[in-house]
Amino acid sequence: MKTTTLARPLPLLAALFLALSFAFACGDDDGDSATPISLDQYFTSVEEIFDDAEEATNVAEESLNEAPRDAPLEEQIAAIDTFLSDIGGVFTDAAERLEALGAPDIVADENQDFIDGVRASLNLGNALRDDLPDIETQDELDDRLSDYSDDVEAGVTKSDNACFDLQEIADAEGITIDLCEN
After folding, report:
1. Which residue, 130, 137, 114, 151, is CA-closest to 13?
2. What is the mean pLDDT of each run of 10 residues along the chain (182 residues)?
3. Is 139 exposed, middle or buried (0-12, 13-18, 19+ CB in 10 A)?
4. Cβ contact 167:179 at 8 Å
5. CA-to-CA distance for 106 and 145, rounded, in angstroms?
6. Which of 1, 8, 53, 174 is the most buried (most CB within 10 A)?
7. 51: closest CA among 94, 16, 108?
8. What pLDDT was estimated at residue 70?
9. Greatest pairwise CA separation for the chain in angstroms
10. What is the pLDDT of residue 7?
11. Exposed e or buried b per residue across 22-54, where buried means at least 16 C-beta atoms within 10 angstroms of its C-beta
12. Is 174 left (phi over 0), alpha (psi -120 to 50) or beta?
């Protein structure tokens, strides 16, 4: 599989967004759920949403990596913009599905930490998309992608930690699930 020059930092970004896809599995219960779901139901639904998000993320990453390594700057920028747009849609959809679940009290804090990390990273992705039209050189693009990778790391770390905390809760409750398999 070919990767673009800009895709060198983007496999990291794709991995970060994949990790964040797990974060969306923690729906935020704002009290609007008519019927609370059990912890088993919650984790089963989370796993389904994770799987859907992972599949969609892989498709977006494949599309990004199809651009030739020596693609002109405009093509690289277009590929990144498309990737970030696709990923934003994947995670927005996942967030909406997860928020509709209503997180049981036992996972509420971890759930919110997950969502907070993902939303912070998505905001950074939107800021990167806003900056793309002003990038005029390969060095500017490389620098901006490097900054983005550094910035998004905090959101990913927060989401990863929440994922591990959720996994610990599932394990302690005897729920067989593997949320943090990567």
Report:
1. 151
2. 39 48 41 68 88 90 82 93 92 79 88 80 92 96 93 83 90 90 56
3. exposed
4. yes
5. 37
6. 53
7. 94
8. 82
9. 54
10. 40
11. bbbbbbbbeeeeeeebebeebbebbbebbebbb
12. left
Looking at residue 12, its amino acid is L
DSSP letter (8 states) at residue 105: G
Give me the amino acid identity at 150. D
Looking up tokens 């989401």 gives 159
pTM above 0.90, yes or no: no
Element (H, E) at 17: helix 9-23
Q: Which residues contact residue 92 at a Cβ distance below 8 angstroms, ignoring those fewer than 6 apart?
A: 122
Three-state SS at 152: helix
Whole-angstrom Cα distance, residue 58 to residue 65? Answer: 10
Tell the burial category of 98 from Cβ atoms under 10 Å away from its Cβ (0-12, 13-18, 19+).
buried
